[in-house]
Amino acid sequence: MKKAQLRKALELLPSEPVPAGQYLVHNDMTPTKPLGLGLHGFRAWIQTKPDNLVECRCNFGGCMHSKLHKLHYRVDRRTFDQPEARP
User: What residues contact 23, with CB distance under 8 A and at least 6 apart?
Assistant: First the structure.
């Protein structure tokens, strides 16, 4: 049985660094300034497992506190494009 993963949706980027063992993640949408989080499909969250993530360098489109979070991740779109194995 897989252990559940904590996910916390964000309205703003955290004003403090993300603690060790947690990952700041956004979906595969491209952020555009000055839209920010929650607009036009751009979502971000913190999760506790690195599953299906790739390092990202988008700078969160210049959202508030983006300079604090240079190391962050996005969902690896390729993991959704692969067909699931059937028994």
Answer: 46, 47, 48, 49, 50, 53, 72, 73
